[in-house]
Amino acid sequence: MTNETKSEGPQGDPSWGSFEFGRRLGLQAAGVIAASGALVGLTDVSNAYAATKSGTIKIGYVSPRTGALADFAGPDSFVLQLIRESSYFSKGITIGKTKYHIEITEKDTQSLGNVAVQVTQELIHSGVDLILVSSAPETTIPVATTCEQYKIPCVSTVVPWEAYWGGFTGATISAEGAATGTGPKYNSMFFFGIPQFVGTFVPMWQRIQKSTNCNANVAEMFPNDADGNAFRAAFAPTVGAMYPSGGYNFVDGGAYTDGTSDYTSMIQQFKTGGKNGASCDLFVNAPLPPDFQSFWTQAKQQGYLPKLATVAKVMLFPTDAYALGELSSNITCGGWFTPYSPYKSSLTGLTSNKFAENYQSAGHGQWVQSMGTTYSLFEVAIEGLKKVSNPHDRLALAEALQTVNYDGMCGPVNMNLKSSNPLMASPAKGIGIIVPVGLQWKPGSTRLVGHRKYAWSQCVVDNSLNPHIPLNASLEPTNS
């Protein structure tokens, strides 16, 4: 089954895939909330508790410390230690004429949406003033929608903005890809969306096409799950809208079931299903990591060797690269935090490079992308608190967070940026866009943080969207 991109069509149409994913997660969270009748009057309880704790600002932090998404939260303990040692969190913050102590309470979702709702309710019942949440829509959307219902300020990250926006009742996305409708009052977020994925992957395709003269057939490995169906609906149309002259021809490998073990028929389709029976020289996916490992191993064995693999959802962490071994070589992905950037902490001045070096020196293994966004959540929290006169005024704090504009560990974050460049602008008030770069896994690289050498490392090979982050390796074909 092929889908050749067309020159016309609104850039935003594909966002409906991710939007629908978020809407379903939001509805699921609402169902869990409705079932927990014991928490009727929760908002009144938390407001009363907060009023008695006027000298303490209570922040809840929610992430998937265990379960299928645990790799995202791997750096949490290290990052939270640094946050607690920084001045605002160790010595307090002065707002108006009052000095407040800041208290952080951590919660684990176990990578389950219903648990995410439950731990969020527990935090609200304890009287938190603000909740921060990271890592994947399955975590962030249940937390964010719960906070919205109970009128608690919340900041999310590591969630495509389209899915996040879709999680709220009444929120919509226009045909041009803009966030419209009645969005959340108590929520804000920073990350990126499908257009930024496309704006990172396609320039790498173009360079490999030029250097190898490979074809424009693109293999799509998208499973029959929420992420896979979102990418299936979104990715090819967005490429067609953003790069109408590219002539890319997408070959869908089929909506396979998560956990599939035999990919022979899909591999054969990718080998012969392109134009004129040609192979698909370019490859994109959004599978579960074990499924990609099975597919990629079988593809090598069966002679499917795309010139460039650009992957989403997998190959984000060193554990993914080690699982594949030599088959990891020159696989590319998008990167939202790297230690090679010129960015630094707004809390302490710690550079991104030193941040990663300290992580590695402390014995936690290689740096991972999620450490940067977790750190930035607390930077955003401080920026919001600086803008209010009363940190216990939930609505005022939520509104302040929706207009945060600062530079920090992940670079500039502007929750309300007006820009002529749609890849940089905020789709709506309260959404900040991190501009990613293209990363490629290299074996035995010496371009490592702190001069430590690991078997595999991610190097910056494309900065088309974000030239502030320097290249430190050449983009090479995944297969010669």
Number of helices: 15
Give the overall form.
Answer: globular
**Can you identify the CATH class of the largest domain?**
Alpha Beta
Question: What structural class is derived from the secondary structure elements?
Answer: alpha/beta
* Amino- and carboxy-terminal Cα gap: 26 Å
Got a strand count? 19
β-strand amount: 15-25%
Major sheet: 8 strands, mixed
Return the average pLDDT rounded to an integer.
88
| Cα Rg | 22 Å
By CATH, the topology of the largest domain is: Rossmann fold
**Low-confidence sequence ranges:** 1-17
The CATH homologous superfamily of the largest domain is termed Response regulator
CATH architecture of the largest domain: 3-Layer(aba) Sandwich
Instruction: Tell me the helix content.
Output: 25-40%
Count of separate structural domains? 2
Q: How are the strands of the biggest sheet laid out side by side?
A: 1-11-10-12-13-14-18-19
Indicate the topology:
Layout: E1 2-4, H1 15-35, H2 42-52, E2 56-63, H3 76-85, H4 87-91, E3 93-95, E4 98-108, H5 113-125, E5 130-134, H6 137-149, E6 154-157, H7 161-166, E7 171-173, E8 179-181, E9 187-191, H8 194-212, E10 217-221, H9 226-242, E11 249-252, H10 264-272, E12 282-285, H11 289-301, E13 308-311, H12 318-324, E14 332-335, H13 352-361, H14 370-386, H15 394-401, E15 405-408, E16 411-414, E17 431-433, E18 437-443, E19 456-462
Parallel strand pairs: 2-4, 2-5, 5-6, 6-9, 9-17, 10-11, 10-12, 12-13, 13-14
Antiparallel strand pairs: 1-11, 3-4, 7-8, 14-18, 15-16, 18-19
Helix pairs in contact: 1-5, 1-6, 1-9, 3-14, 5-6, 8-9, 14-15
